[in-house]
Amino acid sequence: MINFRMLKLSDLLIWGAVAFLIAVGLLAIFSATYRLQIKVDGDPFIFVKRQFFSVLIGVVLMWLFAYVDYERLKKWSPLIYLGSLGLLFMILFTGSSAMGAQRWLQIGFFSFQPSEFSKLAIILILAYYLSANRDLNTWQGLTSVGLIVLAPIILIFKQPDLGTAIVFFAILLGMLVEGEVSPWTLAFLLTPLLSLLLRPIFPLWVVYLGLVYLGLFLSRANFWQWLIIFGSNLMIGLAMPMMWGALKPYQQMRIISFLNPAADPLGAGYHTLQSCIAVGGGGFLGKGFLHGSQTQLQFIPEQHSDFIFSSIGEEFGFIGSFFVLIAYALLVWRAVSIALEARDLFGRMIAMGIAIMFAFHFFANIGMVIGILPVVGIPLPFVSFGGSSLIVNLICVGILQSIAMRRQKLIF
């Protein structure tokens, strides 16, 4: 039985934004696949049917999680986390492969990606831990949080799935900020990442090390802060050649092609070049539904998944893309608002983790499509083809609404 008193307390903007994004996704998936499927098996709706089936499953689970009090997830969070680790471990031995990656588990006729479910698991376990342990600035607290996140990252990196591993780091960083960690802890986490990004340009990296040194000097850091922060930056730079060698050849080429897409225009740089042509060719109003040349002539392989935004940009133009961006902005804004208004710290941490995950997916995917970020295989939430990602995202929406509907006591 639907409790309409509670439904009135839900966030209507989130319902509207998600429904709009799912509808746009179904249209874009149909446009990107229907000509190819007519040639293959004569059914132009095969991908749309599969996505719509995932929508139905996701909507049922979304409503279930919306009406179940989110506080019940607190005691289940450790078990959900351990279960996600078990599924990721199973991938190494029984997972099915596609396009050079072993990321799927097959159960009968149903296959799914455990790495997608592990994103929700890591949000729940971090919310559980951070809401119970407020002293995050000790070595014990920071090490515990690091180990929680490092375990699934290692298993996911073995698949390999670099994109999801990066999402985990973004979730961790955002939730630590929400957990009010010290500036020194954030510096320890962020500065080595910047050192890693700048190390390929050696003179720039040396200048960056000088700025880190100057910052520590001006802030009057003690010996251990000097040793940890400056030492970690130095060690990251020196270990860069070994880390580069640990990447798969196609991952190396993605980074090289990001810096210079023309270096391999028919290989690793092909997706980026063609997607930029598609988005740029859409102009202000777009070429019209089912009339995009790059989309309809299949210039972008697997366009219905990670590069679905290129189809939207080509066929619906700047106007269509703008409304998609507005929908994502509304979704993230309302998720952050729910986090700030949550009745307890556990709910606030969950809502903030979900907001960070949505925002990072949106930024990384669109950045990848328009060529300002490297190709890392991150789907566009609610729009890209993929049942596992869609179902998990809808569950997250349900949890957000559960937190929203319990921001104040109901009066009967």
UniProtKB/TrEMBL annotation:
Membrane spanning residue stretches: 12-32, 52-70, 76-95, 136-157, 164-190, 196-216, 223-244, 316-337, 349-376, 382-404
Matches recorded under HAMAP family: PGT_RodA (MF_02079)
Function of the protein: Peptidoglycan polymerase that is essential for cell wall elongation.
EC annotation from Swiss-Prot or TrEMBL: 2.4.99.28
InterPro entries named in the record: FtsW/RodA (IPR001182), RodA/MrdB (IPR011923)
GO molecular function: lipid-linked peptidoglycan transporter activity; peptidoglycan glycosyltransferase activity
PANTHER family documented for this protein: CELL CYCLE PROTEIN (PTHR30474), PEPTIDOGLYCAN GLYCOSYLTRANSFERASE MRDB (PTHR30474:SF1)
GO biological process: cell division; cell wall organization; peptidoglycan biosynthetic process; regulation of cell shape
Compartments where found: Cell membrane; Membrane
NCBIfam families tied to this protein: rodA_shape, RodA_shape
Protein name: Peptidoglycan glycosyltransferase RodA
Keywords: Cell membrane, Cell shape, Cell wall biogenesis/degradation, Glycosyltransferase, Membrane, Peptidoglycan synthesis, Transferase, Transmembrane, Transmembrane helix
Topology in the lipid bilayer: Multi-pass membrane protein
Chief site of localization: membrane
